[in-house]
Design goal:
alpha/beta; 372 residues; Arginase, Chain A; eight-stranded parallel sheet; 8 strands; binds zinc ion
Length: 372
């Protein structure tokens, strides 16, 4: 049985009225899934209290101290060097209480693995936060905390990130560690924050070859993404054979996302989520980014269906005949996007670049994994 880890307390917080990161993203998803009758109250595990000790698993004491000071919402000059108080990561009242809640999600997901082999944490996936600094809407790294908990039990972890942004906080946090294989698919750092995640950033020391980046050119579409995803993710996860997969399944690769420049639809997104699920013995998926509310509600609902082995095609019919069409919150009746075919020179360049990346993997990465 798949489980959701959540707290309604997230809905109390906001980064500010003009900030693109919505903390009611979990609510958008839960309402959508409930409306389709694929959510029972017993599916949701509520966690309301976090503890500082869990932050220490990934973050420095000094940074935690700074976050705690920021909890009253007053900015101090010292905060800026920790990425706090900048437009991406504003200081607001309760920011430390919020990060404790994120840490609590990670801890509970770890504990829940004893009972469930598929877990979804809709609010989280804060992959930019560094051990000593906030970055890119991420104050702490809940994924990093979870991975640290898993490593302490000697689990082999595969981290897969399909958010449009490079998972730089996870890369940096475990760059020399071969026990966690880190793989991030994202829009190229040539055009998008955090301007890193190139294919030759492959880890150091014993962690060499255990950090893998698959950058996509802007205008990459479903075909380009799935070409690389199937050719790179599938053979490498099969060879690495992890005990646990940790996934960051942000929904900002879509063509309708306001912050990114890719041309995907949720058709390839959900196919990737299905492949991740099929290749994982145990899977903990975090929601991640996504700045279009429709994409959050529909993408996470599709992902939840996949985690429950419900055929997503069922939904098309269900939504047409059900109450979903009358939704006030969502503008579209179907969960799945219309197909979007990109053509012309932009598509050609994106595909040529994808072939170049694939060839890079065949020449430089696959031999290490004894793959062809
Ligand atoms: Zn993102």
């Amino acid at each position: 049985m798949a489980k959701i880890i959540y707290s309604e307390k997230f809905e109390r917080y906001t980064y500010g009225v003009n900030h693109p990161f919505r903390l009611d993203r979990g609510r958008l998803f839960l309402n959508s899934a409930a409306r389709l009758s694929i959510l029972n109250s017993s599916d949701v595990i509520v966690v309301d209290e976090g503890n500082e000790g869990d932050l220490k698993l990934f973050h420095t004491d000094k940074y935690i101290e700074i976050l705690k000071k920021a909890n009253d919402g007053e900015i101090e000059a010292e905060f800026l060097q920790y990425g706090l108080g900048l437009p991406d990561n504003p200081v607001f009242k309760g920011v430390f209480d919020l990060v404790l809640l994120h840490a609590a999600m990670a801890r509970k997901a770890f504990m829940e693995l004893q009972n469930s082999d598929r877990i979804f944490v809709p609010v989280g996936g804060l992959h930019h936060a560094m051990r000593n600094r906030a970055s890119g809407f991420c104050y702490i790294n809940d994924l990093g905390i979870l991975i640290e908990l898993l490593l302490r039990e000697n689990k082999r972890v595969f981290y897969i990130d399909i958010d449009a942004h490079h998972g730089d906080g996870i890369q940096s946090g475990f760059y020399d560690n071969p026990m966690v294989l880190k793989m991030s698919f994202h829009e190229s750092g040539k055009t998008l924050f955090p301007f890193s995640g190139f294919e030759d950033e492959i880890g150091i020391e014993s962690g060499r070859f255990f950090n893998l980046n698959v950058p996509l050119n802007c205008y990459s579409d479903d075909e380009v993404f799935l070409f690389l995803f199937k050719k790179i993710f599938v053979p490498i996860i099969e060879r690495f054979d992890p005990d646990v997969t940790v996934a960051q399944i942000g929904v900002d690769m879509m063509s309708t996302d306001p912050l990114t420049h890719l041309r995907l639809t949720n058709n390839s997104y959900i196919e990737a989520v299905k492949i991740i699920k099929d290749k994982s013995k145990r899977l903990i998926a975090f929601g991640g980014g996504g700045y279009n509310p429709d994409n959050i509600a529909r993408g996470y609902t599709l992902a939840w269906a996949v985690l429950n082995d419900i055929e997503v095609d069922d939904y098309y019919t269900a939504t047409l005949g059900g109450t979903f069409m009358g939704s006030q919150e969502l503008s579209i009746g179907s969960l799945k996007d219309m197909n979007l075919f990109v053509s012309g020179p932009e598509k050609e360049v994106a595909m040529e670049e994808a072939v170049r990346i694939y060839n890079y993997y065949r020449e430089n990465i696959f031999p290490f994994f004894k793959l062809e």
